[in-house]
Specification:
This protein is of the alpha+beta class and 441 residues long. The protein has helices at 3-13, 35-54, 71-75, 78-81, 144-148, 151-157, 202-222, 270-279, 305-316, 352-365, 379-389, 399-404, 425-433, and strands at 17-19, 31-33, 59-62, 83-88, 95-97, 117-120, 123-127, 135-139, 164-173, 188-198, 230-234, 246-254, 257-268, 285-287, 292-294, 297-304, 317-323, 326-331, 342-346, 371-373, 393-397, 406-411, 417-421. The chain folds into 2 domains: 3-74 and 143-313, BirA Bifunctional Protein, domain 2; 340-434, Rossmann fold (3-Layer(aba) Sandwich), CATH 3.40.50.
């Protein structure tokens, strides 16, 4: 098994990610997140929100509808240009994306392939109840347009001034020809994006473009992805999306294969000018200081939450030799991303005094963080279980705890153990996980 397969297998076994609708044979390109995966994904989104909105004063948040007036997709160019080239095997009729180097023969049966045809990726849906009167619309192909159609609403309801941004997280849908690579290319997935409005000035907008490239790269590194496994890849002119003036991908080295994780795009004034044209609404911005009126340029950062989840998992996975003949599988997830921050154990499940103290600690810590409980098997086994789940700390209540009011805290990465007073435990863990310390540092 290669590392990707090992991570996929661990993801299923430990409840990170399951195939969608599995008991009915699945549905290609859909995935369900289990208890651990839900926590991991939520933590990634919370960190995105924190760094993009909470810690800044120039970005606000939005949560737009998935289904929009179909004219939006005409204006955005998606109905005309959001397509992939598709080829079909003349023998087995399997279909493939033609831009992924399959060559002239069918990769499944070696049959001859048709010439590429354009295949639109928008997922159609119908609203209304009366047959014949249903309105055809689409599940959004990118979360972006919900922001741009609200440009004027945001200007009039908040105090933002250019340069400013709008961040959003939400589901997007694409009729991918060949979903695959585990969750890498799905038909339903989540995006986390920033649309940053700047003056329509080439020099100024390129400065912002470079700034956001660095910010986004630094964000992944700050959450523990090994720098060596990340790189920028510039889109060549003929690879640019229909809206882009310039684009770079942040790519992750998925065990030898560089894969796109996030795109940083210079969208020019494509979106606002198109919505102005198609809706008839004035989308210009009035600069109070210079008294200028203009359509802003847009710098976009567009990441996939599912891809980030997958690559954080892959990067964190390690098989480590503990001693001769013994290996452990460990997920070295950044504590901020780990599904459970700490696991609490009574040394022995049949000693009520130990269980009582451990339960009290468990209940108390749960007010502040996700805590796991385990009293099965021996301590060594419980550590291994938590290593695989990525839990950074394990707290054990033993007989010394009863007299000394302290516990053993075991660190996932170093496997070292500390003795910590029960009343200090909450802050001890919070400081280790990251964020503000008790002293306010
Ligand atoms: N608003 C710009 C936009 O949507 P994109 O490069 O098409 O740009 C941005 O998508 C990100 O969304 C990608 O870098 C990727 O992380 C994620 N993404 C795109 N298609 C995906 C799919 N089929 N499955 C999972 N994630 C996908």
């Amino acid at each position: 098994m290669d590392i990707g397969e090992k991570v996929a297998s661990l993801a299923k076994r430990r409840g990170f990610i399951y195939p969608g609708s599995e008991i009915y044979g699945g549905l290609a390109g859909t995935w369900d997140y289990g208890p651990l995966g839900t926590e991991l994904k939520r933590n990634i989104k919370n960190e995105f929100w924190k760094s993009m909105i909470q810690e800044r004063s120039d970005v606000v948040g939005l949560d737009a509808a998935i289904i929009m007036n179909p004219k939006v997709w005409e204006a955005s160019g998606h109905l005309e240009s959001f397509s992939d080239p598709l080829v079909e095997c003349k023998r087995c009729h399997h279909r493939f994306r033609a831009d992924h180097g399959e060559g002239k023969k069918c990769p499944d049966c070696g049959g001859e392939l048709t010439a590429p045809k354009k295949f639109n990726l928008m997922v159609e849906t119908y609203l209304g109840v009366i047959e014949g009167e249903k309105q055809k619309t689409y599940l959004r192909g990118e979360i972006t347009q919900g922001v741009h159609v609200n440009f004027k609403n945001i200007l009039s309801s908040t105090r933002v001034k250019i340069p400013f941004g709008v961040a959003q997280i939400g589901k997007a849908f694409r009729n991918e020809i060949t979903p695959g690579g585990f969750t890498f290319r799905s038909r339903e997935f989540e995006q986390m994006e920033l649309q940053y409005y700047v003056k329509p000035d080439d020099k100024e907008s390129m400065k912002q473009f470079e700034y956001w490239k660095k910010e986004r790269m630094d964000w992944y590194v700050s959450l523990g992805i090994n720098k060596k496994n990340l790189r920028f890849k510039e889109h060549a002119k003929d690879e640019l999306a229909h809206y882009a003036k310039a684009a770079f991908d942040i790519e992750y080295n998925a065990k030898g294969e560089w894969k796109e994780m996030e795109g940083i795009h210079h969208r020019g004034d494509w979106d606002v000018s198109r919505h102005q044209k198609f809706s008839g609404e004035d989308m210009t911005y009035f600069d109070e200081e210079t008294k200028e009126k203009f359509l802003p340029y847009i710098i976009e950062t567009s990441g996939g939450v599912d891809r980030a989840t997958l690559f954080f998992l892959m990067d964190a996975y390690e098989e480590e030799k503990v001693k001769e003949g013994e290996t452990r599988a460990v997920l070295r997830l950044h504590p901020k991303l780990a599904p459970y921050k700490v696991a609490v154990f009574p040394l022995l499940a049949n000693k009520p005094k130990l269980v009582d103290v451990a339960k009290r600690i468990y209940d108390d810590l749960k007010k502040d963080m996700m805590v796991a409980w385990d009293e099965r098997g021996n301590i060594g086994k419980r550590y291994r279980t938590q290593d695989e789940a990525g839990t950074p700390f394990c707290v054990t209540v033993d007989f010394d705890s009863l007299g000394n009011d302290d516990v053993t805290v075991r660190d996932r990465d170093t496997m070292k153990q500390d003795r910590v007073k029960i009343k200090e435990l909450d802050w001890y863990l919070k400081e280790k996980i990251g964020g503000k310390s008790k002293e306010g540092k």
